[in-house]
Structure prediction request, 390 residues.
Amino acid sequence: MKLVVRVKLLPTPLQAAALEATLHACNQAATWAAGVAFEENARRPLELRKHAYAEIRFRWGLGAQAAQHAIKKTCDAYTTLRANLRNGRYGRPGSRRHVRASGKPVVFRPQAAQPYDDRMLSWEHQARTVSIWTTAGRLKGVAFTGQAGQLEVLAAHRQGESDLVCQGGKWFLIATCEIAEGDLNTHPAGFLGVDLGIVNVAATSDGERHCGRRINRKRERDRKLRSKLQKKHTKSAKRRAKKHAGKEARRNKDINHKISKRIVAEAERTGRGIALETLTGIRERARLRKPQRTTLHSWPFAQLGSFIAYKAKRAGVPVVYVDPAYTSQECSQCHHTARDNRPSQAVFSCRVCGFVEHADHNASHNIRQRGWMAWVCGAQSTAPELTLIA
Ligand SMILES: [Zn+2]
Prediction:
């Protein structure tokens, strides 16, 4: 399976200037080539090369590889555009949006990503530097940094092209890694049910709760600061708000990585599969008081679910997705389902059999049972879109 690793480059000011000039040149060349492709109706790499290759190399000083990539990037953009037009992304043929999108050549932003292959970019993992082609010659010893775990994956599994991008004045390389999938455990000893929620970010049927209280409090504070900044309408306030949003996203991602790692490791250690709710259900299901509503929409459930999915795939742990309907109202012991089984956010108390349990754990037991049923009925699937049990 493919995994994308993003590392941050730490260029000196001189190196950064060279990278910027290179990215601009590549994108100007690609935009020009897109115009040629449009006029000559040459939207395949081989054809476009005939019309554009020599000029790109001469006018923008791109090397042979970079010129090839600029041409390929242009052709890929047209392929994507064509697919989008066909799929109705721009409305019906003849509509104003459709005409506007199809009636003029593709344009690349000056900072659009540029692909680099192994001849233009080489990695020194020990020294944590790259040697990278620019229009000002080859830059050697450009430092990079990233999360320790991601750098390990990068060193062991990087394959093929990487993209050079500039975001918010910072430089990144986005590298593709090809990772072997673990042998799927086809005889799981059971399932670990995971209930994703707000108050508890994730509760498992083993009784483990990954509490979100501290995160939520912090998030609430951040949100208040952001809305205060947004009201100010000044440039510096906007900048601060943006910086803050990035910080929050990074923190959430880090937390999601940790939680998913623990859940998958536990399932793998005990020879079990993982049962999750289909993610679309979560937002719709939750009926919450107002302060919680803001947290619901800012919590990246989808990310936690996808982290669990790919880590499970890597470890060969089967994942099944179950319909989340009434998992919070159903008694995991006698299966009596009613809204008043849940007197409060945290407590589950069955009106029929008297079973009392933390609400999220009761839900995770239901998810575990539904996951197991899905598995033994032979409806197992690792596709997140599938609803397995109605
Ligand atoms: Zn009951």
Q: What stands out?
A: The longest strand covers residues 158-167. The longest helix spans residues 235-269. Residues 293-298, 380-390 have pLDDT under 50 and may be disordered. Residues 23-111 form one domain.
